Amino acid sequence: MHRAQERAEITVPETKPATEWILGEAVRKVSPKRRHAILQGALVEIVRGWARGRGETGTEWRFRVTPPGERTRPLVPDIAYLSKERRVGLTGEELEAPRVAPDLVIEVLSPGDRADRVSSKRDVYLAAGTRLVIVVDPDARTLDAYDAAGRVRFTSPATFSTPLFPGLAIDLGDLFREIDE
User: Fold this and answer.
1) Chain-centroid distance, C-alpha 2
2) What 3-state DSSP class applies to 73?
3) If you average pLDDT over residues 162-172, what whole number do you get?
4) In the chain, what are the domain boundaries?
5) How far, rounded to the nearest angstrom, does the alpha carbon of residue 127 sit from its chain's CA centroid?
6) Is it the case that residue 15 has pLDDT exceeding 80?
7) In the predicted model, what is the mean pLDDT of residues 131-155?
8) What CATH architecture applies to the domain 3-180?
9) DSSP 24
């Protein structure tokens, strides 16, 4: 790595919950509660099942993303999918905190999430090369899918799917029943 690249990277302390760089400041992730945890678990099962043989899916996985012309910064999505293609050439150590944007990011909103921070993270992921950012709102029972073309909103009981990730489907009725039981 070149010295200029080292200076260009924003570093934050390793904390629990994780610390990210959002809107020019170090921000600790909101500590999730029951609904967030249940939805995150259900969504990671769906994505992990779909991703078998295609790549890796993880929760709270730190990525170091670099939008064009900006500094590299750490972001930690609730759920991330990284395709085999995007992993090419990365060592096991480099995969621990990849310097590439994940292909797919899912964020589950918590009551303490600030809308401006969620929007900023979404925009940074997309600018850095993430193909799809999904934001799930447990209160509104919606799933917003953001890609280069814009936003599409799905409302329960609809089923989300996209040609960007053929075969991936999220039944919102089933998903939100998880937090009602």
Assistant:
1) 28
2) strand
3) 97
4) 3-180
5) 13
6) no
7) 97
8) Alpha-Beta Complex (3.90)
9) T
